[in-house]
Each structure stands twice: as C-alpha cells, then as structure tokens.
Sequence to fold (176 residues):
Amino acid sequence: MSRSINLIVIHCAATPNGKALYKGGTRTAAATIDVWHSQRGFRRDTVAREAFNPQLYALGYHHVIDCDGRQETGRAHSEIGAHVAGHNANSVGVCMVGTDKFTQRQWEALHSQVRSLQARYPAARIVGHRDLSPDKNGDGTIQPSEWTKTCPGFNVADWLAGGLQPLKSHLIEAAA
Fold:
C-alpha cells in the first residue's frame, strides 16, 4: 500500500529526560512504548504487523529515538500510524524518549532521521505534535493556550530555523 505523506510529526515519549527506555535487556524502547500503546487500546492491522515488526502489536509511531541515539523502527511507512488524531493517514511519526530535554546523540539521530525522511518525502512539512492542535480562536496561529499537548517539549520551528542543530535549552547529557 502506498500513502501520500505530507507531514513528518515529531513527538516525545513524556518520560524522564535522559532516562533511556532500553537498558540492554530484551525490551527495546519501541517495545516498551508498544506495551503502553497496547494499554491505551491501540492496535496494529494484523497483515501490516505480520509484514513489518511482527513483535510490535500496538506501537503508533514509525520511528523511536532512545537517549543513546539508538533509532528503532515501529510501523512501516506504508502503514497508517496512531500518533496524532486527524493526521495519521498522511503522516510519519518520530518519537524521542524524554519530555523536553534530549541528549546530544538524540538530537543527532533526529537530525539524521528527519533528513532521511525529507529525502523520501520532499513535500512533507515537519511539525511537532502540538503544532497540529486545533486553532480554537481561528486566527491562523496555534498559540500555546490552544495546545492539546506540549509534545514534543520544544518548538520544532525553532529547531528547523537553527539548521536542525540541538536547541541549547533542550539539551542534556544522558543520566546513568
């Protein structure tokens, strides 16, 4: 199945900053979020799941970036995500572990991932989850008071304007 992708949506996992979800055991960051999404009632289409990452039953994102910069796949790009209501059919979702501060390795991985997605989907707009909140007052600008979520915890437009370099106020070193 081919989908028309016009959005690349950046998310955060709303987890402690700098605390990796993958600890070297058997459960990766994507597998951990998969459990959380399953508990929220998310489900992947059986055929799509069997064709790509069959061990992930519910994960809504297409990509996950853990604190060490490890990049994992979730859903295939051909599969509709479950990461931003009203925009899943035409988007790819990228989730960073943490809430509003990320490690240098995460920023580098996000840069690399977004560049790769831009090459694949050159017409896609890059936004944060919060940027897709409804414009409640109809002025054409989504203000912080209108955000339904603060995700990804930083202003994606500022990150893009800065050349996809880490935003200093949102940069941390990984916790032990």
About this structure: The domain at 7-172 is CATH 3.40.80.10 (Lysozyme-like). The chain has one domain: 7-172. Helices lie at 29-39, 46-51, 104-120, 156-161.
